């Protein structure tokens, strides 16, 4: 994103990205507690009123997203059964709605199979060769863009993430680790509003979605 403010503390519609994401999770009836992985030098989280909620815990994160996720999962395992289900969410996805969380939880619990929110790819997708030319056109009917939350049993996810990191494998989401461990992962339709804020224009886009939601308009 550039700039001096860490992405999770950029503001949209009067709240930081982290606060929007946290509020959505806390408003979802299925969520019992939330553990937030913070940067070791984080100086801002303590000022967030929602962090006073007794259901919220914090832990020091790691160098990469996967390290932060594993730190939070291991902290959670100190006070929750490894059989319980856990959802991992990006602070950088502030457009999450409590209803999205419940849709994922319902699908996962109905089939007792881990799953993720995801959006079908709507463009024609090309794979490039090393010269920047098209090597192939992919079959988009099989392609989805992974979102978060991603929901798996706590113990299985810790084992899968630890295994992947020990082997030096890159896992950019939790499903990747579960796939490497040979576990099935179901795809549950996510909303366009649940985008990952990655470039400055995404802030305006997510503000638009949040404004429509606040006015009760369809997404
Ligand atoms: N060491 C890290 C790196 C990222 N994240 C979190 O992982 C989520 C998704 O990562 P991404 O959007 O890629 O965040 P950054 O790497 O922080 O940002 P960018 O790629 O835009 O530089 C974000 O909510 C971010 O806060 C984390 O917890 N620990
Ligand atoms: C987990 C994720 O949001 C799925 O799309 C994404 O992979 C995280 O972002 P990153 O840029 O890969 O860290």
UniProtKB/TrEMBL annotation:
UniProt-annotated site: Transition state stabilizer, residues: 7
Residue(s) at site: Positions MEP for the nucleophilic attack: 140, 196
GO BP annotations listed: isopentenyl diphosphate biosynthetic process, methylerythritol 4-phosphate pathway
Pfam name, any one: IspD
GO molecular function annotation: 2-C-methyl-D-erythritol 4-phosphate cytidylyltransferase activity
Alphabetic keyword roster: Isoprene biosynthesis, Nucleotidyltransferase, Transferase
Keyword Transmembrane helix: no
Enzymatic reactions: 2-C-methyl-D-erythritol 4-phosphate + CTP + H(+) = 4-CDP-2-C-methyl-D-erythritol + diphosphate
Pathway(s) it belongs to: Isoprenoid biosynthesis; isopentenyl diphosphate biosynthesis via DXP pathway; isopentenyl diphosphate from 1-deoxy-D-xylulose 5-phosphate: step 2/6
Enzyme Commission no: 2.7.7.60
SUPFAM superfamilies cross-referenced by the UniProt entry: Nucleotide-diphospho-sugar transferases (SSF53448)
CDD domains: CDP-ME_synthetase
PANTHER family: 2-C-METHYL-D-ERYTHRITOL 4-PHOSPHATE CYTIDYLYLTRANSFERASE, CHLOROPLASTIC (PTHR32125:SF4)
Family: Belongs to the IspD/TarI cytidylyltransferase family. IspD subfamily.
Function summary: Catalyzes the formation of 4-diphosphocytidyl-2-C-methyl-D-erythritol from CTP and 2-C-methyl-D-erythritol 4-phosphate (MEP).
Protein name: 2-C-methyl-D-erythritol 4-phosphate cytidylyltransferase
Species this chain originates from: Halioglobus maricola
